[in-house]
Specification:
The complex is a heterodimer of chains A (909) and B (72).
Chain A (H helix, E strand, L loop, with lengths): L1 H14 L1 H25 L4 H12 L2 H11 L3 H19 L1 H30 L10 E7 L5 E2 L7 H10 L3 E16 L2 E10 L3 H5 L3 E4 L15 E4 L1 H8 L9 E4 L2 E9 L14 E4 L3 H4 L11 E2 L2 E6 L5 H19 L3 H4 L3 H8 L2 E6 L6 H38 L1 H9 L4 H38 L2 H4 L10 H27 L3 H6 L4 H42 L8 E6 L8 H17 L3 E7 L9 E2 L2 E3 L13 E5 L3 H5 L3 E4 L10 E5 H7 L9 E4 L12 E7 L14 E5 L9 E7 L3 H15 L6 E5 H8 L1 H35 L1 H9 L4 H30 L15 H27 L3 H7 L1
Parallel strand pairs in A: 2-10, 4-9, 6-8, 17-22, 19-21
Antiparallel strand pairs in A: 1-11, 1-12, 3-4, 3-7, 3-11, 5-8, 6-9, 7-8, 13-23, 13-24, 14-23, 15-17, 16-20, 18-21, 19-22, 20-21
Chain B lengths: L1 H12 L4 E2 H11 L11 H11 L2 E5 L6 E5 L2
Antiparallel strand pairs in B: 1-3, 2-3
Helix pairs in contact in B: 1-2, 1-3
The chains are: A alpha+beta (909), B alpha+beta (72).
């Protein structure tokens, strides 16, 4: 409590300062009067008595001050004074203030905007209880069977971990899938999450209405037709209707009962995948038709999480789970596929390890995809801020020179050097505060624009990223603000406090301090040029990557080409009905007047999907461990006609093909049939699940030209295509339409055609291929656009900085230039004299910047396409642009220097 | 030196509250040399002690000066 009393005393003193001052004065006066009285009593004359009393007391003013020091919070009071001075100083030079605030606002705004994105994409924790205890359980090593993701495991493996582990207080698993959801008269395809019964209890997520799913809902396969809604879906689709709990909805043609609504803000554990419905894992067979996976050890498809028991860390848990893993593998090695392994492979398989990844952020493919680009942007925006700081430091240095005399006077009348530094830092801080406030506003606007362009209108609302800054963003901005104030303010402040009082007050030019500061400013300008070049090079690397990707294209003409997806199996269609539906829809669409050609493919092109499957080929033996997994696809005849991809050998499929046949691409030929004519040869699909049918049963009937499949970046893989009507496992189809009219004009008729066949089948992702390509390049576009903006900003800042320094330097050397001209220097000489400096300053900066870029650009190698990080053309063009801008900025003061009138300049001082 | 002065002040006012001047007089009586140079340095010490601990000031009218007293 002692400190509380002290604080109270200090605060009281602060607010009753006048009164305390008076009291102290009274006290001292009283003391002196007593002493005087005593001295008179001792026989001194009154003046003598007073003199003696004061002598005995000491220096009244200094003791007075010393006493006031003990009152504490003097610093607070002085800060108040400094703030007032600071405000006054800034108000006196509005132009300086505006330029400084804007510079800062751009720097801080850019950083806050990027940090806000990074914060939400890379740093946000799940809104659940103790997210730091969550870990993701994955398997590493030789996996057999199909895998849906590197971190997925099979459901039986999850079950074994769940029941056998001693390190988790609970485990859950989940699988994201689209379902067709009907309520009232509307059926739509929505994002759903299949979850184990332990999902909500282990996460600690509660229900705002009704109840959550529990382990009781996770017992009998197919026996738990209950669903939970996410809070945001409940709001948007059901208008927050409390009475929805207990009502029936139709999911994939099955009747489900809504049992509850999850807590606000919780949309599942995957960033970028906003689950709208949560369904029991036991309903898997109903939710993902045509595949029964709950007992399949050969299919890795669920993401499994565990909550560590208190006191257990990841290495301990891993060690403990490894034993369990080994037991699981001993069982799995008896499965059909591993039975066929060689002894060596079997040994390797039994050595598979368990991997625990931190799960506090859940899991997100989006995060992995955006990690490197975002870090690159963070670095670029940081460089912009550094540039802004350098500009401000330069501005403040210039300002310090004009205030030299003011500071000298302050020092002369007794201000401490520390106090001067503090005063100037306070000014910087003030600038920083205002700049940050403006910057936060800019950041909010920038993020809104960015999010709107990055996420198309239909998916934006599904995205859990908002432009509104949260607490962490504010803390970041505050930290940046303090740091920048210190960075740009400290050097000028220290410089000013070291002014030599006497010469400054005597000498009107004050060249001693000025010279040092001009040197510092020149150093800053060179640094700025270096950073600006770095940013320009980065920007042009990203821009050219985007252009290269766009130019490379998918390998076919995208004009008048559109696509959409349908999944009738979600509406309970049987295999036969599905095929019939596709056939009829194909015919109907083909009959439309605006449509010239229709083709179908199971895997949507350029959306990152790819079905990879081991393939064997006639006369080809793979090196052990060098297993190739070509990209496979189920397609219709005329798909390649529709896409405009030529068949280079053999023929296309026809509807009459009822023997097993296949089409392969050129890369496939090079890999498996090098130097042979593949038409008429045979290949075979290795079925992972049963590991049988290793027979070469598919006859190659044709070779198709290479085309990009998963995305534009990846080199074309070997590809194999099969007629869709010969397969039974596929569910959804992407329809491709080549139109005669503008695709926009056909879209409505296409929707109507589908509705006519079945009004309950939603049309998904109906868009042109150009739009699809645009979407697949959105990260590249975001990075390119932002880095271009940053590059432009950096160039502007550096050029302004250069201009400022040169203008100032010319102004200071006016007299010298006057003398030179008077002595016969030509205009040309004067111009060159100044421009020489410009060239040296920017040249040094460009050299350093080029080296920096050379060293740093390989960090973004993975983000580039079609050019090397050390691409000489990029470096050269960026340097030329910057040098031209610098020369233009430097020319203005140089030209002004040639206009110096010697008479005027010499008289002026 | 400062510690000595603090102790002397506390000792002086531990019996009864005193005015600043009275404290100075008393300390001079007990130990001449501590306040020999500057009587006034009593005041920073008094105020420091008030902030830190121990003593409480009371203002008594009229014109008698500040009274210092111990709370312990």
């Amino acid at each position: 409590m002692q400190w509380l009393r002290q604080l109270w005393l200090k605060l009281r003193t602060l607010f009753r300062r006048e009164r305390r001052n008076e009291q102290l004065n009274d006290e001292i006066r009283f003391h002196l009067e007593q002493q005087v009285a005593e001295n008179i009593a001792a026989g001194m004359s009154p003046p003598e008595a007073r003199h003696a009393a004061v002598r005995l007391f000491g220096n009244v003013t200094s003791l007075n001050e010393e006493t006031r020091q003990t009152w504490g919070l003097v610093w607070l009071e002085q800060i108040g004074q400094d703030l007032r001075y600071g405000f006054r100083g800034l108000r006196k030079s509005p132009l300086f203030t505006v330029v400084a605030v804007l510079t800062l606002a751009f720097g801080i705004g850019a950083n806050t905007a990027i940090f806000s994105l990074m914060d939400q994409v890379l740093l946000e924790l799940l809104p659940v209880k103790h997210p730091e205890q969550l870990v993701l359980v994955a398997e590493r090593g030789i996996r057999f069977g199909d895998s849906w993701g590197d971190n997925d495991i099979s459901y039986p493996m999850y079950r074994d971990f769940r029941d056998g582990n001693q390190v988790f207080s609970g485990m859950f698993c989940r699988y994201p899938t689209s379902v067709s959801l009907g309520y009232g008269d509307r059926t739509e395809q929505v994002a759903a999450e299949l979850v184990s019964g332990s999902y909500f209890p282990v996460l600690g997520v509660t229900a705002v209405a009704g109840r959550t799913l529990t382990p009781e809902d996770d017992r009998v396969p197919g026996g738990h037709p209950v669903a939970m809604l996410s809070y945001s879906f409940w709001q948007s689709r059901f208008s927050s209707d409390q009475s929805i709990v207990g009502r029936q909805i139709v999911i994939n043609g099955y009747t489900f009962t809504v049992i509850g609504v999850s807590q606000a803000g919780f949309d599942g554990v995957e960033l970028g995948y906003k689950s709208k419905v949560f369904i029991s894992m036991m309903m898997q067979a109903q939710m993902t038709p045509r595949s029964d996976r709950l007992e399949a050890r050969s299919l890795s498809w669920v993401t499994a999480f565990g909550r560590l028991k208190p006191g257990v860390d990841i290495p301990q848990a891993k060690a403990s789970l490894q034993t369990l893993m080994h037991n699981i593998l001993e069982v799995e090695v008896q499965e059909p596929t591993p039975q066929h392994y060689s002894d060596y492979d079997r040994k390797q398989f039994l050595r598979n390890s368990v991997e625990l990844l931190p799960g506090s952020q859940g899991w997100s493919g989006l995060r992995e995809q955006m990690q490197t680009p975002l870090w690159a942007l963070v670095a670029l925006s940081g460089a912009v801020l550094l540039l802004a700081c350098a500009n401000l430091a330069s501005l403040l240095l210039a300002r310090a020179t004009t205030r030299e005399r003011e500071m000298a006077v302050r020092l002369a009348i007794g201000a401490g050097r520390r106090r001067i530094i503090r005063l100037l830092l306070m000014e910087s801080l003030l600038l920083s505060v205002i700049g940050t406030a403006v910057g936060l506003g800019l950041a909010f606007l920038a993020d809104r624009v960015l999010l709107a362009t990055y996420f198309s209108a239909d998916s934006a609302s599904d995205f859990p990223i908002s432009p509104v800054p949260d607490g962490r963003v504010l803390v970041f901005a505050l930290g940046t603000m303090l740091l920048t104030a210190l960075v740009f303010g400290l050097a000028p402040a220290i410089g000013s406090s070291q002014a030599d009082v006497a010469p400054t007050l005597k000498d009107r030019t004050g060249s001693a301090v000025g010279g040092k500061q001009v040197f510092l400013r020149k150093l800053l300008v060179s640094g700025q040029m270096a950073l600006a070049l770095l940013l320009l090079i980065g920007a042009s690397l990203f821009l050219r990557t985007l252009a290269n990707l766009e130019n490379a294209g998918p390998g076919f003409s995208t004009e008048h080409l559109m696509a959409f997806r349908v999944d009738p199996s979600l509406n309970g269609y049987t295999d036969e009905r599905t095929k019939d539906f596709f056939r009829r829809l194909t015919d109907d669409l083909h009959a439309l007047p605006g449509v010239s050609s229709v083709g179908l493919s199971t895997m949507p092109i350029l959306q990152g999907y790819g079905w990879s499957n081991p393939v064997i080929a006639e006369g080809y033996s793979a090196d052990p461990g060098q297993e190739q997994r070509p990209i496979c696809d189920m397609i219709s005849p005329k798909l390649f006609t529709t896409l405009g991809v030529p068949i280079v050998a053999g023929r296309d499929f026809t509807v009459l093909d009822n023997r097993p046949v296949a089409l392969i691409n050129e890369t496939f030929v090079r890999k498996y049939f090098a130097g042979r004519n593949p038409v008429g040869l045979h290949i075979g699909l290795v079925d992972d699940r049963t590991a049988t049918a290793d027979t070469l049963n598919l006859e190659v009937v044709g070779v198709v030209k290479d085309l990009k499949f998963k995305n534009l970046r990846e080199p074309v893989p070997p590809q194999a295509y099969f007629p869709y009507w010969q397969d039974e496992k596929f569910r959804f189809m992407t329809f491709y339409l080549r139109t005669r009219l503008e695709p926009r004009q056909v879209m409505q008729t296409v929707r109507e055609q589908v509705r006519r066949l079945d009004p309950n089948i939603p049309v998904v992702d109906l868009r042109t291929i150009d739009e699809q390509i645009g979407l697949s390049l959105k990260t590249e576009r975001l990075v390119a656009t932002l880095s271009a903006v940053f590059g432009a900003l950096a160039t502007a800042l550096a050029v302004i900085g250069l201009y400022g320094v040169m203008a100032y330097s010319v102004a200071r050397r006016k007299r010298e230039i006057g003398i030179r001209v008077a002595l016969g220097a030509l205009q040309r000489d004067v111009l060159w004299m100044v421009m020489q400096q410009v060239v040296v300053l920017s040249g040094a900066g460009l050299a350093v910047g080029g080296l920096l870029a050379f060293a740093l650009s390989s960090l973004i190698r993975s983000q580039l396409y079609g050019l090397q990080p050390h691409d000489p053309f990029t470096y050269l063009s960026a340097a030329v642009v910057l040098a031209a801008a610098a020369c233009a900025a430097g020319f203005i003061p140089s030209w002004r220097a040639t206009r110096v009138d010697p008479m005027h300049a010499l008289r002026h001082e | 030196m400062q510690g000595t002065l603090d102790l002397l002040i506390l000792k002086t006012i531990s019996f009864e509250p005193k005015y600043g001047w009275a404290i100075a007089k008393r300390i001079q009586q007990i130990s001449g040399e501590v306040l020999q140079v500057q009587q006034g340095s009593l005041y920073p010490a008094l105020h420091r002690l008030e902030q830190k601990a121990g003593i409480k000031a009371k203002w008594t009218e009229p014109e008698t000066g500040r009274k210092q007293g111990s709370t312990r």
